[in-house]
Amino acid sequence: MKTIVSATGLNLIDANAERSAAAAYKARQANISILMAALIDGLDAHAKRAAAEPRDYGYAGDLSTAQRRLEEMVASLAGVEA
Questions:
Q1: Do the Cβ atoms of 17 and 35 come closer than 8 Å?
Q2: What is the pLDDT of residues 28-45, one digit of tens each?
Q3: Exposed, middle or buried: residue 12 (CB in 10 Å: 0-12, 13-18, 19+)?
Q4: At what angle do helices 58-78 and 21-52 cross, to 10 degrees?
């Protein structure tokens, strides 16, 4: 299994280097789990910054964008239009 460093600095499996569709699928599934864990960590850090500036609507705007993108991804995996 070959790994790569993503644009976010995370070590991910190089799914393109896998020799079968099943192996590539499993690699991408593992990568998504890593990315989701990083997302939760980032959300926690974001919440701390937002709590320090409770009148700043920019943080809520950040989450609006993130929510919209997540909804699109969930819809894509479910096979429906967002």
A1: no
A2: 999 999 999 999 999 999
A3: middle
A4: 160
